[in-house]
Amino acid sequence: MEGQGNLPPQISAEAEQLIHAVDVALSPAVSTEERNQAYNVCERFKEESPLCAIVGLQLAASARSPTIKHFGLQLVEHCIKFRWKDMHPQEKLSIKDSVWKLMGSGTDMNEPSYIKDGTARLVVEMVKREWPQQWPNFLQELTDLSQCGKEYQTELVLLVLLRLAEDVAVFQSVDPVRRRDLQQGLTANMAEIFDFLSRLLRVQVTAYHERKLIGSPTAQFHCRLALSVIAVFQSHVEWVSIIHIMAHEGQLLVLFCTLLSDENFRLPAAECLLQIVSRKGPAKERTPLLILFNQGAIASMLESAQLASAQPLTEVNYNFLKRLTEVLVGMGTQLCSLYGKEPEVTKPDTLAMYLQAVLALTRHQSLSINQTAATLWVALFKHDRLNIEPELLAVIEPWIAIAARKFVKTSVCAYNAMDFDSDEEFTAFHQRLRSELIEAVRLATVLAPSVTFSYAHQWLLSQLDNTNSILAEWEALALFLDAVACKAKEAPAGPQLLERCLTYQSSDPSILSELLSCISALFVYVQHDPQRLLQPVLNRIFSSVLFSGPGQSKENRTKIVRNVRRHACSLLVKISMQHPGLLVQQFEYLKSNIDRLSKTQDDSQLSRMEVLTLQEALFVISNQFTDFQMKCDLIGEIIRPAAQQWTAISPAFNSAKEFLSFIGLDRPPPEPSVEDVHGRNRSELLASTSVFLAVLKRCRTSIDPLKGHPAAQHLAPLLFDTFRLARVLHQLWEPEAQTLLSPGYAKAHDLLESEIVNILAQGGMSQSGMPACISQLNGNVQKQQSPLERVQNFLAQIHNNVFVMLGSFGETLGEQFYATPGLAVAVAGTTCGHGMEYIPDCRLRTVVKVFCRPFIISCPAHLHQSVILPFLAHFLPAMLQRLASRWQQTMQQQRDENQANLQEILCDVIVRLATRDYIELLKIVILTMTTQFQGEENDEMMDAEGSSSASQVVASVSELGKTVLSEPSLCGYLLQFLLSALWWPDSGNSLKAANILESIVKYWAGLLPRNSAHFPSSEVACLCLSHLLNGIQLLGQHDANLSALIHLGVLMYDTFLPIYPAAMSELMMRNAGCSREDADQYQDKASSLAAGGGQKINQKMERSKRELFRKMTTQIVGQHLADLFRKPVQLASLPKMGSLKPRPKPDAINLADAGLADLFIQE
């Protein structure tokens, strides 16, 4: 075995040829053609040669280079995986003996790890095919190998146990039948395996420390062995019974806690503890984990954290601190889920010590560690039993002092450099951390309002008194103050604090904006003395609305100044929504001030957006009026100028040509120095629609149905012109209109950068990948908007505004809107009329989401027949044709070998989103959702949210849906789309379509009699089933889709089979390739269940029927691209195992006698 001198000539020649081929393949000096030839030689030998295993063993056992030995191991592994089933028993025994000799012959402790792992893999592959049924002596042989006195063999034994556990339990890469046998064997004898590993770990750790003290070079090998043992534990502790982990009074946990103080072992030990404390399952299996709350374990964790923090910053140290934090959080999560629910679980005596340990880690500078700890503080403050414990209440004060500083955004930190690759990633993560902290501060304020408010009070006073305060402090303070004030509304010092904010003056617009946020947070204290505080607050808001920088006017204000003014306007809207009862008393004062400010002509003149935002506050407050006519008069007064302007510009809505001329797109873009007359036209049009939207958004319908919406009488005259404008906007994409565009506006209809970002984000693209996409799609982004960009913004905004208006008319005008003569035709002409094929998908999404959806929802049921059905008669076929053609183009692009460019990627994402939006619309048309309440479920299993669901949302076909399904033409278009969506290459949309079809099929199944005119014909039934089989074929590689499609297929087959037995069986045999016997067997099972009366469905029969349908479709189930050409691994079923029982455990086992043999007693 050491050389090849005594080998038969054929084997020797084959070995030499392979050695040469491997050397050539790995040589950087050879040509590509030579390397490919060498690859082909190796692959051909591996696939075809009967000497593959023999030569592989010779190469693996030779004194050649590690690459040659590794290739030999690969040859043997290939034979075991793919030829074992066909081998003669004598050949199997020969390979097994040779592999065992290979494991026992190695002595080089420094041999590459891939050689050791490859050797262990050979044993694992044989074990998966033979043990325990046909290799009863495996464990004895493994024990003998581990006791031969060589550390090298011990490491191989550990690798075998590790890879076996990974394949069987962790990755579950073994055939289910064999996995059950293997896991049964491992589970029945896990106590002995854990004892063996525990003792081995203690011995190796002790040996490492002893060798290290004397400077022995073998110390590192003992360290490596100990790490290997921990790795084996990691592959087991997540799934084995808790009994084995807690054996010997939890000595294993004690050992892991002890290893936390050792620099070499602390990270894997912490990862092992994390897996243990993160276990889920019945409460009785998780309760023993609370043993970690003993003083020794927590002291070890705290000591190790302090030691790691004191050492220089390295990635290993930092990872250990993160894992340790997760361990402590996992312990707290287990305590929160068990304490108060399990009678035997009491408050830990070391709770105060545990909280101090978590508090110590909360002080750490790392945002990642803080975010992990924040989730625990939220859980602790929420817990209805722990949040009253004095130990937790005592740490709120120091925790608040720490948490408040985490609100401050400081990116200069070494830990941030290790965690984040960009400023954007850091900012996004810090926002998430702030969200967690805000929730925790709110909960802490409920428990100790005086503590949290006192800190907020002192912080705010220090900022008000500090003349050199920085913006980051103000920003963090505003967030913290808002979190505290909303839960500490009775704080006696609140009004005084608000008054201090009102008197503070700053010329810095950024700080002034944050001061407004503080005033917003403290506004809750106005209720303490509204007569004294309300008007000063309003005055301060109005003064901020007029804030302006030196020498600035309406035309040249800086962005930060505009933001402050808009913030003040928005603040008035916010407090109007939150405290309308207070502000209604000051309505006349507010209205007079807003009227006065809107007419100012000095440098503080308000923009239209600012005036409109202030008027929105009046609309919100007017909802409190009891006099309906007062509401109508207020709306009429504000809306009248915009309505008059709308009427004046409505002639431009006659045609696309007139509209393009009105907004100036048929002329060259104006120079910066030239007055843009058409820009004013665009501004007037947008301003008018903004006023209408503000009314629709802020004004509520009267609770008296006879009165309706207060804006109805003012908006009704605008309806006709709004439809005209909507139609003109869609005509702009027609070729005739495109030819009228000035060359400078040729790209006026291109997507905005913000739209591209939004679309790509909805499509799942990460933020890091967006900048490159945007730069390639749109080129360099200019800081100042060009005339083209202003027009692009206008077209996008006016399109959205107009269709939002149309969508809101249904709710606002009510039956008056839906009773309009010719409404259905007008809506159909606007949404899907002539020229629809030119409308971009992204704009069509807007139509579906903001117009069609509310239009259908708001329609009274008695008008469905006269409005909704005629509209759907135009809309359904148009959308089917549109999306079907888009998907055909998308699938053609996917079949092309050329790499898709970014524009194609964007189009692909848009068509998926458009399909999703349309499916959601059909869901509204077809289904109605009802909530069914159920009895409380058994809360044995751990629930991440701490409660079990007591209700279930059930979908069924609505009355509108039944009407649509009863119309043959509408039903045909609807089904054609939903059935096509089952197999279009979008797994998410396929699931959504399957859910709708499930309710439809259930509705068909409930039709009596079955020969009703509404029941599908044989052709429709065959169409449904054939499309479903296409879905299984094209998307069956996704487990969720396959499960949903199988479920839907069983429903379809059960519904159609009794009526069309011959057609259904023939279709299954033709399209799915199932046998006649399986088709007949399914029909027999279905008949048996039907004969039972259907009152009590036999769950076992239903399950067997579902499995039979799965079997009938097995031949056509889609596969992942990576699996298409993968050679199947052979795992033959072995004889059925008898019951396995653990052998009686001796009272004491010496390490020298500790083995893995005789673990099984088969009966």
UniProtKB/TrEMBL annotation:
Residues 38-105 form the Importin N-terminal domain. Residues 112-273 form the Exportin-1/Importin-beta-like domain. Residues 316-1090 form the Exportin-5 C-terminal domain. Belongs to the exportin family. PANTHER family: EXPORTIN 1/5, EXPORTIN-5. This is Exportin-5. It comes from Daphnia magna.
